[in-house]
């Protein structure tokens, strides 16, 4: 499959009978998702929300043919629930649970190695195919069907970006919340591979988060991808004085951006205005604009059109009530065929 969920998704909910599981499972059913089973050890044979409950994932898969799982299990037992789904060869597992211990997630990653399971999360807001299928807790009121894929590490920014995309008349093919935890399942690169292979996705939005190097890894992948499509992204930039590992130290911040720019990726963020002139002179294919922001955040209508730039990435940063913003975008006159 190219993108994770769709009309053929048959969902199983682990921890369905708890408060959170009940509430969000009911939302997913109302949205049109085919919820075929719930799993709560010790409650097998019962029914909840008119859905049969099983004692184990393997039993539920054999009986119902479930091909996706949503995990609503408390943090201390979430890793066990994910590993159980992996051992049952569940194709897709979406872990919504927050605050899963890092050591537990290392065990989960070991179980994932060589398996046929794709893990989204933990700390994921879910996966949403607008108008088709919802898995997780993602807001659905602003989303509608289109050709833009969204991959996010930030739940709050996902809602904001989808709202702005919808306001600009840009629908989404699918939104994937990979979660912001340091150890998790699918990465930006994994999601980019899925979207690049999907014939219904023309644009990809990447929403990053402070910490880690996944944004740089995505830039490296796009640079080397032979069939990379145009991508549009938005990320929360780190403070210049903050250290985030060997590839995100303050001293290497501009170098990281230059590597992104070299592969058709533009970056911007707080405190970047002082670097704008040097970056612009070193990279003439970028245009840098600064301006006032006295009212709402500008609508996302300044994207290069598909006709002018089918490949590349645009990072757009605009925070809360700040009075200035910096925008650096890929020039539509720049040939990006080398990506």
Can you summarize this structure?
Helices cover 29% and strands 23% of the residues. The chain has nine helices and 17 strands.
Write structural notes for this entry.
The radius of gyration is 21 Å and the shape is globular. Mean pLDDT is 76; it is low at 227-246, 248-254 and 265-339. Helix 4 links the parallel strand 6 (92-95) and strand 7. The longest helix has 13 residues, at 19-31. The strands form 4 sheets. It has a 7-stranded mixed β-sheet, sandwiched between helices. Helix 7 (214-224) runs parallel beside helix 8 (253-262). It is built from 9 helices and 17 strands. Helices cover 29% and strands 23% of the residues. The protein is an alpha/beta fold and 339 residues long. The two termini are 24 Å apart.
Ordered list of secondary-structure elements with their pairings:
Elements: E1 10-14, H1 19-31, E2 34-39, E3 47-48, E4 51-54, H2 57-64, E5 68-71, H3 75-87, E6 92-95, H4 102-112, E7 118-120, E8 126-129, E9 133-136, E10 145-152, H5 155-167, E11 172-177, H6 188-196, E12 203-207, H7 214-224, E13 231-234, H8 253-262, E14 265-266, H9 273-282, E15 286-292, E16 313-314, E17 324-330
Parallel strand pairs: 1-2, 1-5, 2-4, 5-6, 6-7, 10-11, 10-12, 12-13, 14-16
Antiparallel strand pairs: 3-4, 8-9, 8-11, 15-17
Helix pairs in contact: 3-4, 7-8
């Amino acid at each position: 499959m190219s993108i994770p969920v769709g009309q053929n998704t048959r969902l199983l909910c682990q921890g369905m009978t708890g408060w959170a599981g009940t509430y969000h499972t009911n939302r997913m059913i109302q949205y049109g998702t085919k919820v075929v089973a719930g799993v709560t050890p010790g409650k097998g044979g019962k029914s909840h929300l008119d859905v049969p409950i099983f004692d184990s994932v393997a039993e539920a898969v054999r009986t119902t043919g479930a091909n996706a799982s949503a995990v609503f299990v408390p943090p201390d037992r979430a890793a066990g629930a994910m590993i159980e789904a992996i051992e049952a060869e569940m194709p897709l597992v979406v872990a919504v649970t927050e605050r899963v211990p890092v050591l537990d997630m290392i065990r989960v990653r070991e179980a994932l190695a060589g398996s046929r399971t794709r893990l989204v999360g933990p700390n994921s807001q879910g996966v949403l195919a607008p108008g088709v299928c919802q898995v997780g807790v993602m807001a659905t009121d602003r989303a509608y069907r289109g050709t833009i894929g969204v991959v996010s590490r930030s739940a709050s920014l996902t809602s904001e970006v989808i709202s702005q995309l919808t306001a600009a008349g840009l629908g989404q093919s699918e939104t994937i919340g990979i979660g912001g935890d340091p150890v998790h399942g699918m990465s930006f690169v994994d999601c980019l591979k899925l979207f690049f292979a999907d014939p219904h996705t023309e644009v990809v939005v990447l929403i990053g988060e402070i910490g880690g190097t996944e944004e740089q890894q995505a830039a490296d992948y796009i640079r080397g991808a032979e069939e990379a499509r145009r991508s549009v992204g938005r990320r929360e930039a780190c403070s210049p004085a903050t250290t985030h590992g060997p590839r995100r130290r303050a001293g290497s911040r501009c170098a990281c951006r230059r590597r992104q720019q070299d592969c058709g990726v533009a970056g911007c963020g707080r405190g970047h205005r002082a670097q704008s002139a040097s970056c612009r002179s070193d990279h003439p294919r970028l245009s840098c604009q600064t301006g006032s922001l006295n009212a709402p955040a500008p609508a996302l209508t300044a994207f290069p059109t598909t006709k002018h730039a089918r490949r590349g990435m645009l990072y757009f940063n605009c925070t809360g009530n700040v009075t200035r913003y910096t925008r650096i975008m890929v020039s539509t006159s720049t040939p990006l065929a080398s990506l």
